[in-house]
Design brief:
about 200 residues; mainly alpha
């Protein structure tokens, strides 16, 4: 493949991701249509399948962007805190704010499912796991005696706890906190968990 051809292919790939990201942000995953995306990107329908395989592959690329942006927000939030408890609260606040402000993209990132028999690419799974590492430093300060493996598992459990509360709320499920108090409820959860960890 010549440099010129590769450049054009990369540019088309970016246009397709941009178009899909915009469509998901506005309409959610259910609103994502191959014909609409390719029309916005200025290419033929068949070009989508040549450049990114299929719609699932395109959603993965959009989700990768979303996870990267969320990770950047968490990184920024974690660096401003003075204490481990403060860091955990700041991370939870940033997570809730991102989910509320980027609801459709957040849903796509955490609810997209590939057809049976297909797995997410290893590089994309690693991006999700990297989100959890934002918790390991403050948790390690609260629980200095934990092994690396146990600390990683504890961080995963804490992430899942906050994520579950957010997911239930944004889904409007019976156990979900009303959105207007979601931030307060997540803060209360993290504070209770921090106190429990301190005393364990």
């Amino acid at each position: 493949m010549s440099n010129n051809t590769k450049t054009k292919r990369d540019e088309l790939r970016q246009r397709l991701i941009d178009a899909a990201e915009d469509e998901i942000a506005r309409l959610g995953m259910v609103g994502l249509k191959a014909r609409s995306v390719t029309q916005t990107a200025g290419c033929a329908l068949g070009a989508l399948y040549n450049v990114v395989t299929d719609l699932d592959g395109l959603i993965i690329l959009v989700n990768s962007r979303t996870i990267k942006r969320l990770s950047d927000k968490l990184d920024e939030a974690g660096r401003t805190a003075k204490t481990p408890e403060g860091a955990l609260k700041a991370l939870a606040t940033a997570y809730v704010q991102f989910a509320l402000s980027e609801r459709n993209l957040w849903f796509a990132a955490f609810n997209h499912r590939l057809p049976d028999g297909q797995d997410l690419p290893d590089w994309h799974q690693a991006e999700y796991l990297a989100l959890i590492t934002h918790l390991t430093h403050p948790l390690g300060a609260l629980l200095p005696g934990l092994s690396t493996e146990t600390l990683a598992l504890r961080a995963q459990t804490l992430f899942a706890s906050v994520h579950g509360v957010v997911q239930l709320s944004l889904n409007g499920q019976f156990a979900g906190a009303p959105r207007e108090v979601l931030q307060d409820e997540v803060q209360a959860l993290v504070e209770a968990l921090s106190l429990g960890l301190r005393s364990s």
